[in-house]
Amino acid sequence: MPPGGLAPGTPVAGRFTKWGGGRHWEWVGRYLGADEHGHWWYSPAGTRCARPGADFLESSGWVSLVPHEGAYAAGFYPAHREVSVYVDMTTEPVWQRRGAAGSDSGPVWEVTMVDLDLDVVLTRDGHLYVDDEDEFAEHRVELDYPPEVVALAEQWRDRVHEAVAAG
């Protein structure tokens, strides 16, 4: 968790990896603040989103959330998007300081988590579902997810699904 006093507007890098250290989604936003749910940051239209095999400028902004405690990362999307809420099950997010404050080398803070495949998705028309269960089943064997990591992903999938369903 970042130390108290992280100022709104501070650049924050979001970095997903895959089990075993492979790169996954990376983007930069601006810290909004923290509340009882966790830490929030905003990424405006034009934000560069990159992972192996994909690199683009996002056409609309979104808000990201990582909890104070928990193993997920959530994205909240604008009304014109088909998906309203997209929650990745992850390892517990880890905050770390990068570089020196005020340097031109990019964001001072980064939050990193391992994407564990399972996603809870809420569409704009109210359809709630769990996505990528097949990928999770494959990767738990191919990437040799430890039993405690499997249990963590399944536990948070169930908790997040219940919370999103409850509104």
Main beta sheet strand tally, sense and closure: 7 strands, mixed, barrel
Task: Give the total of domains.
Answer: 1
CATH superfamily: FomD-like
Low-pLDDT ranges = none
Strand order of the largest sheet: 1-2-3-6-7-8-10
What letter string, H or E per element, gives the SSE order?
EEEEEEEEEEEHH
CATH fold group = FomD barrel-like fold
What structural class is derived from the secondary structure elements? alpha+beta
CATH 2nd-level architecture: Beta Barrel
- How much of the sequence is in beta strands? over 45%
Q: How many β-strands, per DSSP?
A: 11
- Please state the average pLDDT score: 93
CATH class label: Mainly Beta
Instruction: Name the helicity range.
Output: 10-25%
Give the distance, in angstroms, between the N- and C-terminal Cα atoms.
26 Å
CA radius of gyration is 16 Å
Protein name: DUF402 domain-containing protein
Domain DUF402: 26-166
Q: Can I get a quick summary?
A:
This protein has 167 residues and is of the alpha+beta class. It has one domain: FomD-like (FomD barrel-like fold), CATH 2.40.380.10. The chain is built from two helices and eleven strands; from the N terminus they run βββββββββββαα.
Write structural notes for this entry.
By secondary structure, the chain is of the alpha+beta class. The chain has a single domain (11-166), classed as FomD barrel-like fold (Beta Barrel). 18% of the residues lie in helices and 46% in strands. It contains 2 helices and 11 strands, in the order βββββββββββαα. The chain has helices at residues 133-142, 147-166; strands at residues 11-18, 23-35, 38-43, 48-51, 54-57, 62-66, 72-76, 83-90, 94-97, 109-123, 128-131. The strands form 2 sheets. The chain has a 7-stranded mixed barrel with strand order 1-2-3-6-7-8-10. The radius of gyration is 16 Å and the shape is globular. The two termini are 26 Å apart. The model has no long low-confidence stretch (mean pLDDT 93).
